[in-house]
Amino acid sequence: xxxxxxxxxxxxxxxxxxxxxxxxxxxxxxxxxxxxxxxxxxxxxxxxxxxxxxxxxxxxxxxxxxxxxxxxxxxxxxxxxxxxxxxxxxxxxxxxxxxxxxxxxxxxxxxxxxxxxxxxxxxxxxxxxxxxxxxxxxxxxxxxxxxxxxxxxxxxxxxxxxxxxxxxxxxxxxxxxxxxxxxxxxxxxxxxxxxxxxxxxxxxxxxxxxxxxxxxxxxxxxxxxxxxxxxxxxxxxxxxxxxxxxxxxxxxxx
Length: 254
Fold this sequence. Notes:
By secondary structure, the protein is of the alpha/beta class.
């Protein structure tokens, strides 16, 4: 997520919605999804927090082909109140945070080509659906992401949007967490990345620092390369509790 200058107050985030166009996905598009899904599940194994794997099962994301958002929402929304909507690409950050406050998660209405399997600058539906949505099937994490939306909106209104962008990046996107004494992937950017999933856990060339909201706010990130440092929480529950406890006033004081 890249922070953009605040424009007018967000009133019509629905203006950014487009049809998913599921019937327009080709056989090749579905084959790319299946290839990405299969190799990522094999790669992750037990390297990801258990809630992520539970979410894949709960939402039936292992069915062949790109998920149809209506069918996905029929499972997700009754469970945690979240739903997915289709967008054509990255939305402005004020719009993104406004969506989160209403438990709406934007999903790109496109998928990468076969020759782009390992890297895509703009997040596609594989990153959004495979990386993010499994965790939204869990009530505590779902509540945290809604709170992230409120904090993000407040930070942008105060001209300090980068503060929440960094917390989001170092938790929801690229966070690590301990689970039963083992280092695990938490963030969606890592869970959906073939190269960086291994790198984040195993590379000797990066820093792994304890997660806190204050540390996150003061830790810059890279959106164009593997991260030079990752923040590691004591557990997924610790990340959720710390972010949920954060007020807008406390965020601006960090």
